[in-house]
Write a structure and sequence with these properties.
4-stranded antiparallel beta sheet; 1 helix; globular; 8 strands; 17% helix; single chain; signal
């Protein structure tokens, strides 16, 4: 029985020390990138998201430009999702989700428009 207790204690200490050293690697990324390929000969669009602020910028090449928010966006944990049109004409939609509250925006003409929740 004592041998089992020593083994269990040793295993616990091994797990604790391993997890303590891994804390930094478990940190979330500050930025994420979503690449949209419109189709045809169009240049891919790269969207860069600040995960904490929800700020999104985009580029077709070298310089980033910002998207606009009509109202201030609260701090949170944001993700970008894209959807391409099935017609092959290069249409796509970009959605921004705040993962804690469930708030959702759609990008149109460089401006984020919040999608109202169901009542």
């Amino acid at each position: 029985m004592q041998r089992l207790m020593h083994s269990a204690t040793g295993l616990f200490l091994l797990v604790a020390v391993t997890c303590a050293g891994a804390t930094a690697s478990l940190a979330a990324s500050a930025y994420e990138v979503t690449v949209v390929t419109p189709g045809g000969n169009a240049t891919p669009v790269i969207y860069r998201l600040n995960v904490a602020t929800g700020e999104v910028s985009y580029t077709y090449g070298v310089n980033f430009s910002g998207t606009k928010d009509p109202q201030p966006v609260p701090q949170g944990v944001y993700r970008l999702y894209s959807a391409a049109g099935a017609d092959g004409k290069g249409n796509y939609w970009l959605y921004r989700l705040e993962t804690q509250s469930g708030r959702l925006w759609v990008l149109g003409a460089g401006v984020w428009n919040e999608i109202a929740p169901a009542k």
